[in-house]
Protein backbone atom coordinates (compact mmCIF):
# COMPACT_ATOMS: atom_id res chain seq x y z
CA UNK A 1 0.00 0.00 0.00
CA UNK A 2 1.32 3.42 -0.95
CA UNK A 3 1.82 5.99 1.72
CA UNK A 4 0.47 9.43 1.01
CA UNK A 5 3.05 12.17 0.87
CA UNK A 6 2.72 14.77 3.55
CA UNK A 7 2.50 18.28 2.19
CA UNK A 8 3.17 21.05 4.68
CA UNK A 9 1.19 23.62 2.69
CA UNK A 10 -1.96 23.52 4.83
CA UNK A 11 0.06 23.67 8.02
CA UNK A 12 2.00 26.69 6.72
CA UNK A 13 -1.19 28.33 5.52
CA UNK A 14 -2.78 27.98 8.97
CA UNK A 15 0.33 29.59 10.49
CA UNK A 16 -0.07 32.56 8.14
CA UNK A 17 -3.82 33.05 8.35
CA UNK A 18 -6.21 32.59 11.24
CA UNK A 19 -9.93 33.10 10.69
CA UNK A 20 -12.00 33.35 13.84
CA UNK A 21 -15.46 32.51 12.55
CA UNK A 22 -18.82 32.74 14.29
CA UNK A 23 -22.25 32.21 12.81
CA UNK A 24 -24.68 34.12 15.02
CA UNK A 25 -27.27 34.34 12.26
CA UNK A 26 -30.55 32.46 12.02
CA UNK A 27 -30.35 32.34 8.20
CA UNK A 28 -30.29 28.86 6.67
CA UNK A 29 -28.14 27.27 3.96
CA UNK A 30 -25.12 29.52 4.43
CA UNK A 31 -21.60 28.85 3.20
CA UNK A 32 -19.30 26.95 5.54
CA UNK A 33 -16.49 28.34 7.64
CA UNK A 34 -14.12 26.67 5.18
CA UNK A 35 -15.67 28.65 2.29
CA UNK A 36 -15.25 31.98 4.11
CA UNK A 37 -11.66 31.01 4.97
CA UNK A 38 -10.90 30.22 1.33
CA UNK A 39 -12.39 33.51 0.07
CA UNK A 40 -10.60 35.72 2.61
CA UNK A 41 -7.33 33.85 2.01
CA UNK A 42 -7.63 34.44 -1.74
CA UNK A 43 -7.82 38.19 -1.15
CA UNK A 44 -4.92 38.55 1.27
CA UNK A 45 -2.42 35.76 0.54
CA UNK A 46 -0.23 37.74 -1.86
CA UNK A 47 0.06 40.85 0.29
CA UNK A 48 0.40 39.72 3.90
CA UNK A 49 2.76 37.34 5.63
CA UNK A 50 0.35 36.98 8.55
CA UNK A 51 -3.34 37.74 9.04
CA UNK A 52 -5.83 37.35 11.85
CA UNK A 53 -9.43 38.12 10.94
CA UNK A 54 -12.62 37.66 12.93
CA UNK A 55 -15.69 37.12 10.77
CA UNK A 56 -19.13 37.04 12.29
CA UNK A 57 -22.47 36.48 10.58
CA UNK A 58 -25.17 38.61 12.19
CA UNK A 59 -28.89 38.97 11.60
CA UNK A 60 -30.29 42.27 10.35
CA UNK A 61 -31.11 43.86 13.71
CA UNK A 62 -27.58 43.42 15.08
CA UNK A 63 -25.91 44.32 11.77
CA UNK A 64 -28.07 47.45 11.62
CA UNK A 65 -26.93 48.45 15.13
CA UNK A 66 -23.25 48.14 14.13
CA UNK A 67 -23.80 50.13 10.94
CA UNK A 68 -25.69 52.82 12.90
CA UNK A 69 -23.22 53.01 15.78
CA UNK A 70 -20.00 52.95 13.74
CA UNK A 71 -20.99 54.48 10.41
CA UNK A 72 -24.01 56.61 11.33
CA UNK A 73 -26.21 54.75 8.82
CA UNK A 74 -29.41 53.28 10.25
CA UNK A 75 -29.85 50.17 8.09
CA UNK A 76 -28.35 46.71 7.82
CA UNK A 77 -25.66 46.51 5.15
CA UNK A 78 -24.09 43.48 3.48
CA UNK A 79 -20.56 43.69 4.94
CA UNK A 80 -18.79 45.88 7.50
CA UNK A 81 -15.02 45.99 7.88
CA UNK A 82 -13.13 47.12 10.95
CA UNK A 83 -9.35 47.19 10.47
CA UNK A 84 -7.31 47.05 13.66
CA UNK A 85 -4.82 49.58 12.37
CA UNK A 86 -7.33 52.16 11.10
CA UNK A 87 -6.11 55.49 12.38
CA UNK A 88 -3.78 53.89 14.91
CA UNK A 89 -0.03 53.69 15.29
CA UNK A 90 0.82 50.06 15.90
CA UNK A 91 3.91 48.45 17.38
CA UNK A 92 6.46 47.17 14.84
CA UNK A 93 5.45 43.52 15.33
CA UNK A 94 2.11 44.26 13.63
CA UNK A 95 3.45 46.19 10.64
CA UNK A 96 3.30 43.23 8.24
CA UNK A 97 0.24 41.63 9.84
CA UNK A 98 -3.36 42.21 8.89
CA UNK A 99 -5.79 42.24 11.79
CA UNK A 100 -9.44 43.14 11.65
CA UNK A 101 -13.08 42.21 11.94
CA UNK A 102 -15.70 41.53 9.30
CA UNK A 103 -19.43 41.50 9.90
CA UNK A 104 -21.62 39.98 7.20
CA UNK A 105 -25.42 40.10 7.27
CA UNK A 106 -26.66 36.98 5.44
CA UNK A 107 -30.22 38.27 5.02
CA UNK A 108 -28.95 41.32 3.12
CA UNK A 109 -26.50 39.24 1.07
CA UNK A 110 -29.20 36.72 0.12
CA UNK A 111 -31.66 39.47 -0.83
CA UNK A 112 -29.04 41.26 -2.96
CA UNK A 113 -28.00 38.03 -4.67
CA UNK A 114 -31.61 37.34 -5.67
CA UNK A 115 -32.12 40.92 -6.90
CA UNK A 116 -28.89 40.84 -8.91
CA UNK A 117 -29.45 37.39 -10.40
CA UNK A 118 -26.37 35.92 -8.70
CA UNK A 119 -25.98 32.73 -6.73
CA UNK A 120 -25.74 33.13 -2.97
CA UNK A 121 -22.30 31.48 -3.04
CA UNK A 122 -21.02 33.93 -5.64
CA UNK A 123 -22.26 36.95 -3.69
CA UNK A 124 -20.91 35.68 -0.35
CA UNK A 125 -17.54 35.05 -2.02
CA UNK A 126 -17.48 38.53 -3.52
CA UNK A 127 -18.45 40.29 -0.30
CA UNK A 128 -15.94 38.31 1.78
CA UNK A 129 -13.17 39.31 -0.62
CA UNK A 130 -14.53 42.88 -0.78
CA UNK A 131 -14.54 43.19 3.02
CA UNK A 132 -11.06 41.68 3.28
CA UNK A 133 -9.77 44.20 0.74
CA UNK A 134 -11.23 46.99 2.90
CA UNK A 135 -9.26 45.59 5.85
CA UNK A 136 -6.18 45.77 3.62
CA UNK A 137 -6.76 49.49 2.99
CA UNK A 138 -8.59 49.40 -0.33
CA UNK A 139 -11.55 51.73 -0.71
CA UNK A 140 -14.04 52.89 -3.30
CA UNK A 141 -14.84 56.44 -2.23
CA UNK A 142 -12.80 58.13 -4.96
CA UNK A 143 -13.37 57.02 -8.56
CA UNK A 144 -9.74 56.00 -9.19
CA UNK A 145 -9.69 53.97 -5.95
CA UNK A 146 -13.00 52.33 -6.89
CA UNK A 147 -11.66 51.35 -10.32
CA UNK A 148 -8.52 49.83 -8.76
CA UNK A 149 -10.51 47.93 -6.13
CA UNK A 150 -13.08 46.66 -8.62
CA UNK A 151 -10.37 45.46 -11.03
CA UNK A 152 -8.72 43.54 -8.18
CA UNK A 153 -12.06 42.05 -7.10
CA UNK A 154 -12.75 40.90 -10.67
CA UNK A 155 -9.32 39.22 -10.88
CA UNK A 156 -9.75 37.53 -7.49
CA UNK A 157 -13.25 36.31 -8.28
CA UNK A 158 -12.24 34.96 -11.68
CA UNK A 159 -9.18 33.23 -10.17
CA UNK A 160 -11.58 31.56 -7.69
CA UNK A 161 -13.79 30.39 -10.56
CA UNK A 162 -16.56 32.97 -10.27
CA UNK A 163 -17.81 35.44 -12.89
CA UNK A 164 -17.17 39.18 -12.83
CA UNK A 165 -19.28 40.50 -9.91
CA UNK A 166 -19.73 43.84 -11.67
CA UNK A 167 -20.78 42.40 -15.03
CA UNK A 168 -24.28 43.85 -14.87
CA UNK A 169 -22.72 47.34 -14.55
CA UNK A 170 -20.91 46.93 -17.87
CA UNK A 171 -23.96 46.86 -20.14
Automatic annotation (TrEMBL):
<dbReference type="GO" id="GO:0004521">
    <property type="term" value="F:RNA endonuclease activity"/>
</dbReference>
<dbReference type="GO" id="GO:0006364">
    <property type="term" value="P:rRNA processing"/>
</dbReference>
<keyword id="KW-0862">Zinc</keyword>
<dbReference type="GO" id="GO:0005737">
    <property type="term" value="C:cytoplasm"/>
</dbReference>
<keyword id="KW-0479">Metal-binding</keyword>
<protein>
    <recommendedName>
        <fullName>Endoribonuclease YbeY</fullName>
        <ecNumber>3.1.-.-</ecNumber>
    </recommendedName>
</protein>
<keyword id="KW-0690">Ribosome biogenesis</keyword>
<keyword id="KW-0255">Endonuclease</keyword>
<dbReference type="GO" id="GO:0004222">
    <property type="term" value="F:metalloendopeptidase activity"/>
</dbReference>
<keyword id="KW-0540">Nuclease</keyword>
<keyword id="KW-0378">Hydrolase</keyword>
<comment type="similarity">
    <text>Belongs to the endoribonuclease YbeY family.</text>
</comment>
<dbReference type="InterPro" id="IPR023091">
    <property type="entry name" value="MetalPrtase_cat_dom_sf_prd"/>
</dbReference>
<dbReference type="InterPro" id="IPR002036">
    <property type="entry name" value="YbeY"/>
</dbReference>
<dbReference type="InterPro" id="IPR020549">
    <property type="entry name" value="YbeY_CS"/>
</dbReference>
<dbReference type="Pfam" id="PF02130">
    <property type="entry name" value="YbeY"/>
</dbReference>
<comment type="function">
    <text>Single strand-specific metallo-endoribonuclease involved in late-stage 70S ribosome quality control and in maturation of the 3' terminus of the 16S rRNA.</text>
</comment>
<dbReference type="GO" id="GO:0008270">
    <property type="term" value="F:zinc ion binding"/>
</dbReference>
<keyword id="KW-0963">Cytoplasm</keyword>
<keyword id="KW-0698">rRNA processing</keyword>
<feature type="binding site">
    <location>
        <position position="134"/>
    </location>
    <ligand>
        <name>Zn(2+)</name>
    </ligand>
</feature>
<feature type="binding site">
    <location>
        <position position="140"/>
    </location>
    <ligand>
        <name>Zn(2+)</name>
    </ligand>
</feature>
<feature type="binding site">
    <location>
        <position position="130"/>
    </location>
    <ligand>
        <name>Zn(2+)</name>
    </ligand>
</feature>
Amino acid sequence: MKRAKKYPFLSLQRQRFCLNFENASTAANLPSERDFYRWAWAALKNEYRRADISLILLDEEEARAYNRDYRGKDYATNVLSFALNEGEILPDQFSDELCGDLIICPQVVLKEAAEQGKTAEQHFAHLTMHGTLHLMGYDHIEETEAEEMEALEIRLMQAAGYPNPYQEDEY
